[in-house]
Amino acid sequence: MCGITGYYGNKNMGKYLYNSLKRLDYRGYDSAGIATLNNGKINIKKDTGEVEQINQKHNLEKTDGKIGVGHTRWSTHGSTTKQNAHPHLSCDERFAIAHNGIIENWKDLKSQLNGHRYTSETDSEVIAHYIEEKSKEMSVEEAVKKFFKEAKGSLAVVLLDSKEEKMYAFKRGSPLALGIGNDETFLGSDLYAFSTETDKAIFFEDDEYGIIDQTGYVIKNINGEEVEKEPENFDWDQEEAGKEGYEHYMRKEIGEIPQAVERLENSLNSAQEKQVDRFVELIKNHEKILFTASGTSYHASLMGVYFLNKADIEAQTLIASEFKNYERVDEDTLVIAISQSGETKDVLDAMEYSRKEGADIASIINVPYSSVERESDVSLRIMAGQEVCVAATKTFINQIYTLLKIANKLGYQNHLEEIPKRIEKVIEKNEPKIKQLAKELKNKNDIYIIGRGDTYPIAREIALKLKEIPYIHAEGMMGGELKHGTLALIEEDVPVISLIPEKNSEIISNVKEIEARNAKSIKISPWTGPFKFPNSNSKFPFYTIIIGFLLSYWIANEKNLPIDRPRNLSKSITVS
Ligand code: F6R
User: Fold this and answer.
1) Could you tell which of 294, 302, 458, 565 is best to mutate to test the pocket of ligand 1, judged by most ligand atoms within 8 Å of the CB?
2) Which UniProt keywords apply (predicted)?
3) pTM of the model
4) Which domain holds residue 341?
5) Given pLDDT bands bounded at 50, 70 and 90, which one contains residue 33?
6) Residue 243 forms part of a structural domain
7) Does residue 176 share a domain with residue 106?
8) pLDDT tens-digit profile of 317-348?
9) Alpha-carbon dihedral of residues 260, 263, 266, 269, nearest 10 degrees?
10) Does the C-beta of 128 come closer than 6 Å to ligand 1?
11) How far is CA 56 from CA 357, 439, 442, 493, in A?
């Protein structure tokens, strides 16, 4: 949710900022912009739309300068307009800022400042005016510290000071990293911002700020004391290979699932073996196991609860944004956080709450060096590689594979070896039928999906994908719940997808209830309905979600929708 970037050095400024923003645009793609310093003057180029469109219109790539900041926005305060796009300038045009997060007390801060002209409706713009005003009575550094102390909420800010020719960077809540090159310094919301340029980085902790100028950088705490931070060498081959002939990343990423699972399996057995053992030990040594996650990762956590249950370990899960309202944790609790990005604010908040109450924390993430990984006692990487499409697909499969592997180690007997090959076959054998079904469903307003046991989380996940990509209202439900209310909505021709792993009388009764109301009954099953599956009940969730992913993809394709960048969403949600 909003990506920020900054650069001090001799590269071609416009080209660097443009490429860095393209790599960050999964964090938000409502608008984008850059501010560069050239001959003592700040030049701003910004607009609504995706970075590539803005480049075509404003030639971002052809912008000179020695210092520059950039921003890609996911709108929170203020609608998606050019005025609300970052960077924002102070009235005297000395300062430009880019901000990720939410400043909760921006109105109070604004009320302290007199005579300033605001050009946007954002909470962020107040930063530029505040620093302008306060730096009349104190140094810019003191003004930054003062702002930092007074601001409430989450912030990662990059400030360009055109007079002193410096950048200031400060962080609380939202992520911020500094990359170290040869006579050049990079800033970014995450490593993607600059990982093409350097493999040396420093991660800011909360309440730290940095000053970047021609001599390099210095990092200080909120009291102005210098903090010695050892740069980390990140060994991270996460370069995105492009669409490789596919029309959309989503379809390409579904196709990558078999390789991603194989890579994960190898890593869990070799490079990550010790972490796996530690993870398993932590589960054994805690009385209470609580998962927490958001969205798709929450559906993975439901699978985790099911798998641990099969290994005779009681566990529960709760959506991260409600965790502190519904869960009591203590030193006998192990909290297992699951997050693809490792930056989801709701998850980080649940972890912070749990930590304060004395819990231990394990996590399962995809993006290496992310905040969730760094805040955990032990963390496993799911090795899915970069997922460019906003909708999670390959990362969901690798999350549930990791959970199944852990449950295996704890006693849930299950063979995992055949999963990658069989997923490949499921795609190959079923895609033509899925395309046909997509044509039949494209004009439907509502779709219901029912499952039981380990297909219940899959029903929820299919529903989420149908909402997110083809914009169809969908509900994923426990089959047994249908008759307790929702059945009232099931009438002639309403599509209901049933996930039926075996000849299980309970789910079959639910299907009968639907068919008795003349619904459009679609069965996903190895023994009935249009699709073909390997005969393996325990792995059915892995195969059936592939049908769900492809169905969402092909309906959206039929509707000509922006599949990789669905409206109003962002890949990394760093506000609560
Ligand atoms: C859906 C999707 C989201 C994310 C959610 C959590 O396709 O991608 O629902 O799963 O925003 O994100 P992470 O896993 O990064 O914490």
Assistant:
1) 294
2) Aminotransferase, Glutamine amidotransferase, Membrane, Repeat, Transferase, Transmembrane, Transmembrane helix
3) 0.88
4) 257-416
5) very high
6) no
7) yes
8) 999 999 999 999 999 999 999 999 999 999 99
9) -60
10) no
11) 51, 35, 33, 46
